[in-house]
Amino acid sequence: MNQRDADFLEAARERRTEPGTNPELVGEKEYPHTDRRRCRLLKYAIPVLHVSSSAAAEEFYCGKLGFEPRFATRLDETKADPCYLAITRDGVWLHLSSFSGDGVTGGVAYVAVDDVDALHAELAGKGVPIDSGPVDQTWGNREMYVKDADRNCIRFIEEGGVQAVE
After folding, report:
1. Which residues contact 9 (CB under 8 A, 6 or more apart)?
2. Is 0.70 topped by the overall pTM?
3. Are 157 and 141 in contact (CB under 8 A)?
4. With contact defined as beta carbons under 8 Å apart, do 35 and 97 qualify?
5. CA angle at 150 for the pair 148 and 156, rounded to the nearest 5°
6. Nearest CA among 102, 94, 80 for reference residue 44
7. Which of 13, 62, 76, 149 has the most CB within a 10 Å radius?
């Protein structure tokens, strides 16, 4: 075992506490079959949306929605498709793929935003068709939905008042 792994394991042992006493895990559920609490190992998720044309998708997501391309992978660089494209905006990543087997058209991505009305004004000003919203939901969110040419729905959500389910 290398020193980095040994240091990691030692730090993990030092963080262990009696069930129900770790202030970092308040609200986390305990597993009855172990004395450990649920570890927070997950860091983030990146939705993969299936698109029929990477060029059209890049034009929509980057040209209209304000994302920036980060990388594109093609089996044949002389052809636009199939392509696996990564895009970002304000730290949010989406992956778009025209490879068969990478999802189906009509997918959904939930994107949390600070101000859905400001984003609506920006996108409407660029001529982006808004599928729904902004609308106040009964559960406390303010939401706006935008669909691409492949009927993938990007749900821009300004969160508010949503309570976690215990």
Report:
1. 1
2. yes
3. yes
4. no
5. 35
6. 94
7. 62
Alpha-carbon gap, residue 89 to 114, rounded angstroms: 13
Confidence of residue 2 (pLDDT cuts 50, 70, 90): low
Task: Identify whether the C-beta of residue 64 lies closer than 8 Å to the C-beta of residue 123.
Answer: yes
Give the sheet arrangement for strand 153-158, strand by strand: 108-112, 153-158, 142-147, 132-136
- 145 φ, ψ to 5°? -115, 135
How many CB atoms lie under 10 A from the CB of residue 103? 18
Residue 16 has pLDDT above 90, yes or no: no
- Tell me which of 92 and 166 has the higher pLDDT: 92
Amino acid, res. 2: N
Q: What is the pLDDT of residues 123-158, one digit of tens each?
A: 999 999 999 989 999 999 999 999 999 999 999 999
CB 27 within 8 A of CB 165: no
